[in-house]
Design brief:
Blueprint lengths: L6 E2 L8 E7 L4 H9 L7 E7 L6 E5 L2 E6 L1 H6 E5 L2
Antiparallel strand pairs: 1-6, 2-3, 2-6, 3-4, 4-5
C-alpha cells in the first residue's frame, strides 16, 4: 500500500494542483462551512493566488472558479500535492 504525505493547504504555492485528503478539525461548524462550498474529501483544487495581507488563498475547483479561503480554513485542510 502506497503512503502519502499530507500537507496543509496553507503551505501550497500558486500554480499547484492538490487533492483534499484530510481535515485537522471536524467540528460541526467547520463541516457545514465546507459543505456550503461543496468542498469534500477527494476534491481537486488549483491554487490561483495568495493574498499577502492576510494569507488567504484563492483556489478553483469543480464549479467554483474563484473561491477565497482564509488562512484559518486553509490551515485545517490537508492535501496531497498532485502537480
Amino acid at each position: 500500500m502506497k503512503e502519502f504525505s499530507y500537507t496543509p493547504l496553507s503551505t501550497c504555492k500558486p500554480g499547484q494542483t492538490v487533492q483534499l485528503t484530510a481535515l485537522t478539525n471536524s467540528s460541526t461548524e467547520f463541516l457545514e462551512f465546507l459543505n456550503s462550498r461543496k468542498l469534500a474529501l477527494g476534491t481537486e483544487l488549483k491554487v490561483l493566488s495568495r493574498e499577502v495581507y492576510d494569507l488567504s488563498l484563492v483556489v478553483s475547483y469543480a464549479n467554483h472558479p474563484n473561491e477565497t479561503l482564509s488562512e484559518k480554513v486553509s490551515e485545517r485542510l490537508l492535501v496531497r500535492i498532485l502537480k
